[in-house]
Amino acid sequence: MARTPAPGTRERILTTASRLFYSRGVRAVGMNQIITEAGTGKNLLYSHFPTKSDLVAAYLLRAQEFRLAGARRARESADGDARSQLIATVAEVATLVQHPRFRGCAFRNYLAEFPDETGTAERGTADAGDDAGDDAAPTPAAVARDFLAATREELAAQVAALDVADPDRLTEELWLIVDGLFLQAAYRRRLDGRVGADAAVDLAGRLVDAAIGDR
């Protein structure tokens, strides 16, 4: 008789895998290591996550939930005007990257590790059948790209609410600041212990105010 999974087994596996993937990188972490550290059997792990790709996608979807909740709280805590909410969006990232255990953006990290991964769905079974694509799981790369694209679109929507003369340019400038915060904080603390968080928020404010003044 098959063993009944203990309550919370999937969550324990995913929590362990998320910690390892984020701290060490996806490529460096094998399924056997996750099985050992999660204290679960091989068959039990694969019953929840049939492939490593499934597990990585779940890790990124969990990171997505965390990031969306943080961005939402930032907007809700800001004053009601569009400018304050926009600056709060950048400031939330600036706060995040100063965390002692910050190791970069999970989505950008994944795409840097696997720059050539393409496709929207992937399953590890050989007998998936002709209709497998209808309910196939998203690939990790699809999760990462879709989230980053949606995040940029949200930023663009916030900029559009300002009714500035050149919203595309301001969106690109602010997106570069966000990108820069994630990328430089991932390595800079290890070199000199600092990140440019305050400078980034100040720069975002100046760019927004300049764009508002030009309209």
Task: Report on this structure.
This protein has 215 residues and is mostly helical. The protein has 2 domains: 1-49, Orthogonal Bundle (Arc Repressor Mutant, subunit A); 60-213, Tetracycline Repressor, domain 2 (Orthogonal Bundle), CATH 1.10.357. It has 9 helices and no strands. It has helices spanning 9-24, 31-38, 42-48, 52-77, 82-96, 106-113, 140-160, 167-192, 197-213.
Radius of gyration: 20 Å
CATH homology group of the largest domain: Tetracycline Repressor, domain 2
Sequence of secondary-structure elements: HHHHHHHHH
**Low confidence ranges:** 120-134
Overall body shape: elongated
| Total number of domains | 2
Q: Helix share of residues?
A: 55-70%
Structural class: mainly alpha
Second rung of CATH, namely the architecture of the largest domain:
Orthogonal Bundle
In terms of DSSP E residues, the strand content is under 5%
Distance between the termini: 71 Å
The total beta strand count reads 0
CATH class of the largest domain: Mainly Alpha
CATH topology name of the largest domain: Tetracycline Repressor, domain 2
Q: What is the average of the pLDDT values?
A: 87
Largest sheet: none
Please work out how many helical segments DSSP would assign: 9
Brief digest:
By secondary structure, the chain is mainly alpha-helical. The protein is 67% helix and 0% strand.
Features:
215 residues, mainly alpha, Arc Repressor Mutant, subunit A, Tetracycline Repressor, domain 2, 2 domains, 67% helix, elongated, HTH-type_TetR-like_transc_reg
